[in-house]
Write a structure and sequence with these properties.
Largest sheet: 7 strands, parallel
Bound molecules: uridine-diphosphate-N-acetylglucosamine
CATH class of one domain: Alpha Beta
Mean pLDDT: 95
CATH topology of one domain: Rossmann fold
Number of helices: 11
CATH architecture of one domain: 3-Layer(aba) Sandwich
Structural class: alpha/beta
Shape: globular
Number of strands: 13
Length: about 350
């Protein structure tokens, strides 16, 4: 029988792409989402790709009663992938309680339910959990690339702190003897879209992240992109990140599930999920222009407060243990992101 996976936040950017990868690779899966930062059109996009109806539970994953109903309704849950978190740095600084409440409580509710129902619902097997963590836990590392052993720094913002605390919550829960098998994937910078153009990244309001701002500027939704600083100690002065195609990241979740399946419970570990090298903001803009044959309207602005100057992953652990490696390039990602943006049509600035 196919493994059944519950995808919390499955209508969001990374969640929707991972859901598609799960179905395409023979899993059965259901989505839980409250659409607080996703559009219902994401579900239609997924259905277009997988050519069948999505099993959807609409609701808030920190609502324990609702989640208990979801766990009861699913006949068996072999694993959960938890994407249902808020992720905006500046919003988290303005409204920390929103972030601590949502990001911590949704995980606590889930771990309790996995303890309670997991073993039984998963036919006695320890349920698997893959959790969306972030390279934000490293802060600005002293040495690059960052390995999983790189000491974690104090978080720069409440959002980053929720990721650190959530990792600790999972580690402590597993170490307490809970029959769980857990991997936290520390994402670097997920970009791009599904190759079909049917799903992609569509943040509510003005994007905080670079690539949606780039594509929305190219589409005329935004007047101009501001590059946050060009006087950093980097080759061209702009910040450097490890940009990973969202479909490669989706595959990393499946590799994590497959690996977890073979481990003995209790199990907890963390893995970097990146491509293993960095690109600057200016390189990304140039690549976007070249691969899509257009000119982007941008200007250089001041540095963004709290920005990490340079970070990229050491990916040897995920390559060797999970047998996963990013296959797609930044060019692929920026071509796919633009293809997706073009499907969205016109919108006023
Ligand atoms: C941030 C968080 C990360 C989080 C991610 C998802 C930190 C340090 N990073 O990533 O943990 O998972 O958001 O929301 O907390 N840039 C511009 N102009 C723009 C937008 C961005 O120049 O309009 C630059 C930034 O300065 C940065 C790069 O683009 O150098 C990437 O920025 P962004 O997409 O916001 O991601 P991060 O800051 O890396």
């Amino acid at each position: 029988m196919k493994s059944n996976i519950l995808v919390l936040g499955g209508a969001g950017f990374i969640g929707s792409h991972t859901f598609v990868a799960l179905i395409e690779q023979g899993y059965s899966a259901a989505i839980v989402d409250d659409f607080s930062n996703a559009e219902i059109s994401a579900i239609q996009g997924i259905e277009k790709i997988i050519k069948k109806k999505v099993k959807l539970y609409k609701g808030d994953s920190k609502d324990a009663a609702f989640m208990a109903r979801v766990f009861k309704a699913e006949k068996k849950i072999d694993g959960v992938i938890h994407f249902a978190a808020h992720k905006y740095v500046s919003e988290s600084v303005k409204d920390p309680l929103k972030y601590y409440d949502n990001n911590l409580n949704s995980l606590i509710v889930l771990l309790r339910l996995m303890n309670e129902y997991g073993g039984e619902r998963a036919h006695g097997r320890a349920p698997l959990l893959v959790y969306s963590s972030s390279c934000t836990v490293y802060g600005q590392p002293d040495k690059l690339p960052v390995t999983e052993e790189t000491p974690l720094k104090e978080a720069e913002c409440p959002y980053g702190n929720t990721k650190k605390i959530c990792e600790e919550i999972m580690r402590d829960t597993v170490h307490s003897g809970s029959p769980l098998k857990v991997i936290a994937l520390r994402y670097f910078n997920p970009v791009g879209a599904h190759e079909s153009g049917a799903i992609g990244e569509l943040p509510r309001g003005v994007p905080e992240n670079l690539v949606p701002f780039v594509t929305q500027t190219a589409a005329g939704w935004r007047k101009s992109l501001t590059v946050f600083g060009n006087d950093y100690d980097t080759p061209d002065g702009s910040c450097v990140r490890d940009y990973i195609h969202v479909m490669d990241l989706a595959d990393a979740h499946i590799a994590a599930l497959e690996y977890l399946r073979k481990q003995k419970a209790p199990y907890y570990d963390v893995f970097n999920a990146g491509v293993g090298h960095g690109n600057s903001v200016m390189e990304l803009i140039k690549t976007f222009e070249d691969v899509n044959g257009l000119k982007l309207n941008y200007s250089i602005g001041p540095r963004r407060e709290g920005d990490i100057i340079k970070i990229y992953a050491d990916v040897r652990k995920i390559n060797t243990k999970l047998g996963w490696k990013a296959k797609r390039s930044l060019k692929d990602a920026l071509r796919d992101a633009w293809r997706w943006q073009k499907t969205l049509g016109k919108k006023a600035c």
